[in-house]
């Protein structure tokens, strides 16, 4: 850390899926830019590793929230806890996602379909429902949701994931339209192909080194999280 104020200095940022991949990279970058990160993920140990990394880099101490996003009541409580502690929220990054089963649409088990929709769509709706009032208390509330090109280009065997991302995109655009007269800017970010565990699972025969690491794409997240951000209701590409 330098003495120069970061671009997200003193901002409060919730990041879901913060324990690995893009979410962890964004959490580390936000902390390096001066934000207090509320890191949400299922795995306590991985969150503690993130905490260590942020401390070693000299960033503000993060708040660790070990939470399964399918625990919707807990997401409601998250909003109340953040209000009690900060009375506002400056940034929401809805990044956590589930790939589900890659198979013909008719072969996807109902429980897998439900899990993908719960994590990729309903959890983000519940986060909006819980955190919208806090974002309105910020001088420049920012919301960023990670999406994918498969939402707009049908890709065989990605049925549940593609449908969930298409629903996410429409949901966020509707919310953005409702926020037109507020100080909040809500956008979707399509990171393209990135070296993540999900990508490796979807394309196991690929050479992962041909793709950028998550840390290489965090600049776009910072741009959309800054108070100076202008886009609203858009799908932004890295």
TrEMBL record:
This is Oxidoreductase. The keyword Transport does not apply. SUPFAM superfamilies: NAD(P)-binding Rossmann-fold domains. It comes from Rhodovibrio sodomensis. Belongs to the short-chain dehydrogenases/reductases (SDR) family. Pfam families: adh_short. Keywords: Oxidoreductase.
């Amino acid at each position: 850390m330098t003495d120069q104020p970061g671009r997200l200095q003193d901002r409060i940022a919730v990041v879901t899926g913060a324990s690995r991949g893009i979410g962890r990279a964004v959490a580390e970058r936000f902390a390096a830019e001066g934000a207090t990160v509320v890191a949400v993920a299922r795995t306590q140990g991985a969150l503690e590793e993130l905490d260590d990394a942020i401390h070693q880099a000299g960033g503000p101490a993060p708040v660790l929230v070990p939470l399964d996003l399918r625990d919707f009541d807990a997401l409601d409580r998250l909003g109340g806890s953040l209000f009690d502690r900060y009375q506002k929220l400056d940034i929401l990054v809805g990044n956590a996602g589930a790939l589900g089963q890659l198979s013909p649409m008719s072969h996807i088990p109902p429980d897998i379909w439900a899990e993908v929709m719960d994590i990729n769509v309903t959890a983000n709706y519940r986060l909006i429902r819980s955190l919208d009032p806090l974002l309105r208390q910020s001088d420049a509330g920012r919301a960023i949701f990670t999406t994918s090109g498969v939402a707009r280009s049908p890709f065989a065997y990605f049925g549940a994931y593609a449908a969930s991302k298409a629903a996410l995109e429409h949901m966020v655009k509707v919310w953005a339209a409702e926020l037109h007269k507020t100080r909040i800017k809500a956008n979707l970010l399509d990171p393209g192909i990135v070296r993540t565990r999900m990508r490796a699972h979807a394309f196991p025969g690929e050479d992962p080194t041909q793709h950028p690491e998550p840390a290489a794409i965090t600049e776009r997240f910072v741009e959309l999280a800054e108070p100076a951000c202008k886009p609203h209701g858009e799908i932004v590409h890295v």
